[in-house]
User: Fold this.
Amino acid sequence: MADMNGVLPAVTIAIPLLASVLILIVGRHENIREAVTIVAATAMLGSVLAMLPEILSGGRITISLLPMVPGGDFALRVDAFGMVFALTATALWLLNSFYAIGYMRSLKEHAQTRFFFCFAVAIAAAVGIAFSENLLTLFIFYEILTIITYPLVVHVETPEAMKAGRKYLAYLLVGGISLLAAVILTYTLTGTTGFVPGGFLAGSGSALILQILFLLFMVGFVKAAWMPLHGWLPAAMVAPTPVSAFLHAVAVVTAGVFGIVRIAGWVYGMDLMASLGLGTFLAVIASFTIITASLFALTEDNLKRRLAYSTVSQLSYILLGVSMLSIAGMTAAMAHIPIHAFLKITLFFVAGAVIVSAGKEYISDMKGIGRKMPVTALMFSAAAIGICGLPPLSGIISKIYLALGAVEGGMPILLLVVITSAVLNAAYFFPIIYTMLLDRPDDEHSLDSVSEPPLVMLVPIILTATVSVLIFFFPSTPFMDLIEIALAEITGSVIP
Amino acid sequence: MIETFYELFLSRYNYWMAIILMLIGLYALIAKQNLVKKLIGLNIFQTAIFLFYISLGEVEGGTAPIYLPEGVDALYVNPVPHVLMLTAIVVGVSVTAVALSLIVRIYEEYGVIDEDELMQAVRRR
Amino acid sequence: MTMIDHIPVLMIVIPILASLLILLAGWYDRRFCYPISLITILFQFGSAIAILLHVMQEGTIRYSVGGWAPPLGIELVVDSFNSYILAAILLLAAATAFYARRSVEKEIGPEKTVSFYVLFQLLITGLVGMTITGDIFNLYVFLEISSITAYTLIASARRPHSYVASFNYLILGSIAGGFILLGIANLYAATGTLNMADLAHLLPASYELATVHAAFLFLMIGFSIKAAFFPLHLWLPDAYAESPSAVTILLSTAMAKVSIYAMFRILFSVFTTAYIIDTFPVTGFILFIATVAIVAGAVLAIAQKDLKRMLAYSSVSQVGYIMFALGVANQIALEGGLLHILGHAVMKGCLFMVAGLIIYRMGTSRLSDLKGVAKTMPISCAAFALAGASMIGIPPTIGFMSKYYLVLGALEAGHWVYAAVLLLGSLLAVGYIWRFIEIAYFGDHHGDHGEDHQTRAREGPLSMLAPIVGLALLSLFLGVFVEAVMEVVGPAVSILLGGA
Assistant:
């Protein structure tokens, strides 16, 4: 078992890298190229699933690939929390690949080979982040992810896309530098960068230095799109919809919040965070972001941009969970990663489907579109309800834990934030649902040519929505179980 | 006072002469507009260094370092700087040759050898 | 003496003979020149690798030229520091030699190829000589050999402006040479020897002498001009931008690195850390200037309109990184600096090769004319992107690794502010690298500018493409397998810090 499992983390990352090379080679033959993507995505999911039993039984898989610089070897370790992210990312990549193929072909997008090449490298980087054994390895994958998603963001190559691309790079590379500074500083302080459950920074420097270090980490994980450093995310909405889905759900923003949770649980540790007052700091940022982003979302008429602000707001739920520095809070934070990913990708899939089938990007143009695309609109409504935190969708799970954490921790103000945000969520989502399903189109014949998107797009939409329902009914398999193990690790109730 | 003066200047007059020559050369290199005059400045600069070297090897009352009837015990100047400077002179000549040929080509192309005019001509193209 | 002990001197003698042979053979038939040149350079490269392996295992090789014992005779010394530099520059020289054939035919013209290869060979020989000599005056002679050939090679582009660039370089280069000569004179006056090991031995007794301080300053200024260390870089942009592509590559990789090598050698092996840190503390000043160089070079590069000129200013910035290591002067930072000597040579070589290929195909390197060039030259532009990522310092490329070491070293020495500036400064590289990437990949979607260039452009010939791709991949693999490189760099730094 251990022999086979030992190399699986490396194999998981190698599969998409290999696929990316193949994609470049067979680029001209579209069908073979797409087959490579699908096969790689399936194989990757398979290899992650193969590691799942070992992780669920409380084990961890470590593999050191290469000695590198002082400060960390190039090494991978699969633990429960990494598994949460990896499982989410690979499952969604598979679905997203189907969807992307349908989307790109329907719109006859240019440079598809480049697109799928970057996609494959990006997922490798995302899973690499999930499986990183130390900060340095994480940083390397994090930077690769930044660079390789740039061609995806500017895919349409219009001047405004180029402008958005510059903004994207500016934010993320500055963040990358800050992260690098934080990594090196951590190494200088402690002589190590390997993640340790419960943290390893305690007692290594003065409170001020550790606070500055945390700020560097926060700026470093600008991919989490916390305000006021969120500007790149709405700008990046110029990209094709599968890219938006990828940014928002599968990899990029998730990598950001993943990093922050990692830092909180595995570098600082909750006790140290609390004694440094970082919880309050984080809570302020998170609350501010949640409310402000929701207000921004209210004013957006472009569906994708509204979803973008929704993401900004939702990501801060995770930060809010971390800031509570309690079991319930951390549970909410970790659980919200897959929950939000599945819900948000559904929403983006639908937005893309509307673009493909009806060519419409603005909410005000979508009146009555549900009549022609009933399934799509229904799935959108379901996912939107999920984000608002209503049963029977998964969104309510993290909300409950958040509320619990707020009450337990004696922080009623945070409870207020959660409730306000739920109301705001409803305020910006329900009008869309109303417009899509109940409103009448201005012109009866304007929707004549509109129909459901092709099956290759529709099926992923249905699947992601279904998974969101399933998570509600069966929360423990596998996500909550994994989170439980991860929490046991960082609180020290299990000797790792 | 006199002693300090002697100490500083007269006992090391070879240093000062070399420095004065060097500064003259550098001045020509920087301040002269004419490319050929710049090159002459470069040559003065280099020659100053050669002289400096040679003066380092000087021994008072020494003769040329060749075998004399008196035998190896004779007092003669240090030959090493001379040898080094032979090489350096060759280098200097080569540099001068390359520089002159460059000036010729520049003159053929632009019709000027004055630096300011040359810069204007370059900008015009 | 075994065979390997003779290789250092053969690495100088054989190429000099080869350059004569090229001249004679070229007289008979021009087509002989290139193979002779290539074989010679490959021989040198092979020897360099052999020497490197030998030195790694057996230690320093010392060879007395002509059997005259040092300190009077000239001594060749190859230790783990210069065997590393030697392998690095000859790697680049070999790549350039492969690349040169086609670009030389086009840019210099067939009738001049004979003299080109003769000079090319002599330039490399001069650089090799500078690297392996253990005699400081001999260093000067080889420096002038490489300089004079470099002036001529720059002018061989036969564009009017290249004569001017060459002349300006000649003036500044000769001033630098003069200063170096003066510095050597002062050292000789103070100690009576020219052998580097001997100097290191005798100098401590006269550390306080004004003569020694003067010598140090003269040598520093001289080599700073040669290495284009800001603000003494004024000759560099013109010289790089106006010379033929093959020459630019060799100047920016091999020659620039050897000048830096010479500076390191003089500072650490002749004067030793005791002098530059305690007796005559310059490292803080160098660190400051180096940081300014990093920022200023990058800002100037961003302001350029021409690809080659942009890359030239980037070199000014990158020299700053290496000098940064010198300024910090501890083990880790110097490891980063030496790593960057190799890394920068590899990636800048690749970038200049792509620029040369673009000129070869399209006849221009003005950035505004290059819109959408990635569509017609996808492989070379991908190589540019990879080497460019290394320049920016995206992990896991070699450029990232050297910057990592530099920052780590700076933090260890307590230079927090400089470390922060270095990190932010490396972002500036994004400014110029990304400008080309944007133009090449994404610049052509809506406009139809540069249509006539496009039709003429296509991917380069294999002999030019192969070195480009090779160097680009190397900039990635050297980073991934940085541990293996560090096994060479580590002992080299120990040599620097441990004195001669």
